[in-house]
Design brief:
Layout lengths: L7 E6 L3 E10 L2 E11 L3 E3 L2 E3 L2 H18 L6 E6 L4 E4 L20 H8 L2 H8 L8 H8 L3 H5 L2 E4 H10 L4 E2 H4 L5 E2 L4 E2 L1 H7 L9 E2 L4 E4 L2 H7 L6 E3 L5 H7 L8 E6 L3 E7 L6 H5 L3 E4 L5 E7 L3 H12 L6 H10 L20 H11 L8 H27 L5 E6 L5 H11 L3 E3 L4 H13 L7 H11 L3 E3 L5 H22 L6
Helix pairs in contact: 10-17, 13-15, 15-16
Length: 506
């Protein structure tokens, strides 16, 4: 009997946890199993919030060791994806100069306004097409200007590139993740010297760009020894921004679909062939990030399940822990759309006291304050569904791409209540799954590079649709109630804007 093909290992690092998944592709079958999962817990040192990057790397090595045991010590290749925008700095010897700073750290507060003095937001968007978020890499680098660490740096590696460098000793900058830095021109798919010069960023810090599917080195001898793997094991560049891999892992047919990659963040939008760089797009706060196979991920970042995660964390810290299942049942039984908040409000970015901040936002908007945990969770999920609806509608309007189905992938695909509310709010059918879309997109990019999967994204997505468990949610209820909730939220936003410009809070 012929031996089974070697599996592909997907290292998938999220903001709350990391995992190493094993994907097998053969004879029209695609399977994914978890080799190892580990927490991703940031550490505050003094005033600064850091990623514990060495603990993450140890988790990756532990995961590769576990994958090797499952696969008899032999892997077809390894691919690495993670969250975006954050980076590590290396000195001339290749040593890490310090733990990477977490994007939720407060060091970028007010930096966007300073950057705007050198490069107005209209010009920055025209050059990069990126949504203005206070933690974009360009703002992090502006905040780090004149620091000893940046002065000593000779190389800058985004998080998945840093992990790949430690595994292989080969430095590179994968394009889909580089496009989140606000330093890439999405038309040329190369660095923007206009932006770099205006902001004072040395593009020489970045190693050469590489595309998904390109070789990214081989596991070093020490890594092979430490994991028990038999070499050579190639490392393949994938869509190293986890959303790029997740969108590649959407089981869609044709082009008429929207996607919502849900997890700590919700990334909602459509897939295009070219960026949308209009002033209207900028004002709608849409981003043009690069995807696999030359695509553009035209989307809006929404706060996502971070709101729920933080509520659960706060309740547990206060000695009132909640199991998510019963809590979602209470939320489903709570009055719908009683209170909604703006899920994209930057006030929710920082960790801590989330139930209190949600209550404050409801009060400020003249809406009832949630009375218990169940009502708070219903407020969060209703608000996310409204934000999903707004993002999908705006993406269709601004891009001209018609949509007849919404695909929800990532961890939020497991939340049946959120998926049904999203279908109801959008008035469109929702296909939920796969939950591990990023890992699957990672595996499929490796498999295509190795010749184990033929064709492009369409063929990969057909394989996903044929092999992965999916749930379907049809829209129900009166969509007018969502219209009224959206109008109520818009009125609350207008009141906030009036207050910000000297009006009186209502």
């Amino acid at each position: 009997m012929p031996s089974a093909p070697r599996p592909f290992a997907a290292v998938d690092l999220g903001a709350a946890s990391g995992r190493v998944m094993l994907g097998r592709v053969a004879d029209g079958e695609l399977s994914l199993t978890e080799a190892h999962r580990f927490p991703n817990e940031p550490v505050r040192v003094g005033p600064t919030l850091h990623w514990d990057i060495l603990a993450l790397y140890r988790g990756v090595l532990d995961g590769l060791r576990a994958a090797g045991r499952t696969a008899g010590g032999r892997l077809a290749s390894v691919g690495v994806d993670s969250w975006a925008v954050d980076y590590g700095l290396l000195d001339a010897s290749g040593a890490l100069l310090g733990n990477p700073v977490h994007y939720r750290d407060g060091r970028t507060e007010g930096v966007a306004a300073r950057v705007a003095e050198a490069l107005p937001p209209r010009d920055l968007y025209a050059a990069t097409g990126l949504q203005e978020l206070p933690f974009n890499t360009v703002y992090q680098l502006a905040a780090a200007r004149d620091t000893p660490q940046l002065a000593a740096a000779r190389t800058l590696l985004l998080i998945p590139d840093l992990i790949a460098y430690w595994l292989t000793g080969v430095a590179g900058t994968e394009l889909t993740n580089a496009s989140t830095t606000q330093l890439i021109d999405p038309r040329t798919r190369d660095w923007s010297p206009v932006v770099a010069d205006a902001v004072g960023v040395d593009l020489g810090l970045f190693p050469p760009l590489r595309l998904p599917g390109a070789p990214a080195g081989e596991l070093l001898p020490g890594v092979l020894d430490g994991t028990g793997l038999t070499g050579p094991v190639p490392v393949t560049a994938v869509g190293s921004h986890d959303t790029a891999s997740a969108v590649a892992g959407v089981p869609a047919a044709g082009e008429r679909f929207a996607y919502i990659a849900t997890g700590t963040w919700s990334l909602a939008g459509v897939e295009l062939d070219a960026p949308v760089l209009s002033e209207e797009s900028r004002r709608a706060n849409f981003t043009n990030e690069l995807g696999v196979d030359g695509t553009v991920r035209y989307l809006r970042n929404i706060m996502g399940l971070w709101l729920l995660q933080e509520c659960l964390r706060d309740w547990a810290a206060a000695g009132e822990p909640h199991d998510l299942g019963p809590l979602l049942e209470r939320a489903a039984a709570a009055a719908p759309l009683r209170s909604v908040v703006d899920a994209g409000d930057p006030a929710f970015i920082a960790p801590g006291r989330m139930p209190e901040r949600i209550a404050r936002a409801c009060r400020r908007g003249g809406q009832p304050v949630p009375r218990d945990a169940g009502e708070t969770v219903r407020c969060v999920l209703d608000s996310l569904a409204l934000a999903h609806r707004a993002a999908v509608e705006d993406a269709v309007r601004l891009s001209g791409r018609a949509v007849d189905t919404v695909h929800v992938v990532g961890g939020g695909a497991r939340n049946a209540l959120l998926c049904q509310l999203t279908a109801d709010a959008c008035g469109l059918p929702v296909v939920a799954g796969p939950a591990e879309a990023a890992a699957l997109g990672n595996v499929l990019t490796q498999a295509r590079a190795a010749g184990a999967v033929a064709g492009g994204l369409a063929e990969s997505r057909a394989l996903l649709a044929a092999t992965q468990p999916l749930r379907h949610h049809e829209p129900s209820g009166d969509r007018a109630v969502w219209d009224r909730a959206a109008a109520r939220l818009a009125d609350a936003g207008a009141a906030d804007a009036e207050t910000a410009f000297g009006g009186k809070e209502k």
